[in-house]
Amino acid sequence: xxxxxxxxxxxxxxxxxxxxxxxxxxxxxxxxxxxxxxxxxxxxxxxxxxxxxxxxxxxxxxxxxxxxxxxxxxxxxxxxxxxxxxxxxxxxxxxxxxxxxxxxxxxxxxxxxxxxxxxxxxxxxxxxxxxxxxxxxxxxxxxxxxxxxxxxxxxxxxxxxxxxxxxxxxxxxxxxxxxxxxxxxxxxxxxxxxxxxxxxxxxxxxxxxxxxxxxxxxxxxxxxxxxxxxxxxxxxxxxxxxxxxxxxxxxxxxxxxxxxxxxxxxxxxxxxxxxxxxxxxxxxxxxxxxxxxxxxxxxxxxxxxxxxxxxxxxxxxxxxxxxxx
Length: 325
Known about the structure:
Shape: elongated
Number of strands: 9
Number of helices: 11
Number of domains: 2
Helix content: 25-40%
Order of helices and strands: EHEHEHEEHEHHEEEHHHHH
Structural class: alpha/beta
Distance between the termini: 54 Å
Strand content: 15-25%
Mean pLDDT: 88
Strand order of the largest sheet: 4-3-2-5-6-9-7
CATH topology of the largest domain: Rossmann fold
Low-confidence stretches: 1-35
Largest sheet: 7 strands, mixed
């Protein structure tokens, strides 16, 4: 790259685990891996996807248009970035490792793809994402949950995200009521998005092989989003899934939960004058009405309830002035 046009990237502090790693590798721009000898840092979850057939499948499943801006979280040395650049208008890579950034910039230097690549150096969870149409990522698995919720909350809405996850995490995203993997993550994700399992990826497709199997999923935000206060929704779901195999009544009928709901209700009633709400009724009595032995939800457990069930339960509590946030 000519002097004076060299790209500059701010490094988020010298405490990054890669701050002192300055070795250059002899990467061949024309090959997929070639002589790429840069060492992945497995302590922070780096595992390079080395199978070009899997990369091709992921890019294909993302259905990228020539007018699309693609966000790639953790591009690494660019094995997936290169075909993404070829298929899209531009690619924005969010990468925390300066070694990877150097390798990726070398890979596009002097090519017709160079002007289509932008790098943001930083932690993907702490970094504000710019506008994008499609997200594609092979991520460190320890950031799976916070990344999913960050994407679910991202505005303006994007068309889809195609992401590699640890297999168990991926299966939790689409787990159904009654299944062992059905959890708070399942319910929250399915409230806000449609998730499809795309393909299973074996350990040997990575360098070095991880200890777990992987899966690629496609996430599409529900548009328009459901008319639910997500903070309150998550407050209820968090409580109910804290002991998902206990009855709703036993989970909610504890001193700490009753105190929380009572405080929330008093706050709500002080801010809203709703003549249809009996302000004198006790929280214990409301719990009995909604999830007690004579209610429609008597004996029900969170592990067996559907999305619609949870929405109905929340509406019943709200109708009585009870809120979870």
